[in-house]
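Entry 14. Ran structure prediction on the chain below.
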Amino acid sequence: MKKLTNCRYIAFLVVIVFAFNFVGCKPVDKKNTEGQTVKPLLKKSIEKEVKDVVYPLPTTFELTSMLNRIGADYILGLSNSSENADKYFTEKARALNLGVYSADLSYASTYQRKQETMLFLKASKALIDNLEITSAYNETLVEEVEKNLDDKDQLVKIITNSFYDTYEFLNKNAKGNLSLMVVSGSFIEGLYIATHISENTYSNPEIVKVIFDQKEVLEKLLSVLEPEAKDPNIDSLLVELNGLKLSYDKIVDGSMDEEQLKEITTSVAKLRDAIVQ
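Output, structure tokens:
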């Protein structure tokens, strides 16, 4: 896979860290409570030294789980409306908003918001269908989620599998740059949620730290996008994300003041609004 040669080492390290920190090194159950087989997480490719392609960043479950652990509330209306899914017509808009809805789906399911989980899932599935990501796993995604709404751990596994599966499918079907747009949309929406989850974010140092820690994720995302800058859609994303990076680069010694936080919040909101409009 020549497209991802420059970032294979980064991808390998990031997903290894994600595997150990988020999943806790526990083996994945092969059957759910209904006795049905659940596809194991696609991290087995890592054990084979990333022979194929792997999701290059932690999924937004890591971010939303951190927000949940520090006591941030779920805010209705913060996510992109599920009704917007039908208004995206270009491949770029569909791919970016599939990433957005992936983050919204992580957010809702992390907070065990059943109705919102199903709405964002169906919005995601509509975009998956429009992008013709017809993998066997995605065909049964809605059914699997519906059956596991009360089992948070299993739900996380199923949805995470879907992220990995979609990324892998696009890369194996000569649509690698679309997969990078999905990842970008997910990162942007995740950061948007983090910066808007509180009316007075700066008063909560734990949320501020979560936001600051996304600087490293942003840098890894840029390193994945840069080799594909010849694609005009990727190039425009790079320009916009590098603008966000400039805001992060103003932070000295890991200490973010209120004005710097406001600048990052404004930058990511501008990025996100351009995607979901």
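Residues 152-172 form the longest helix (21 residues). Will compare against last week's run tomorrow.
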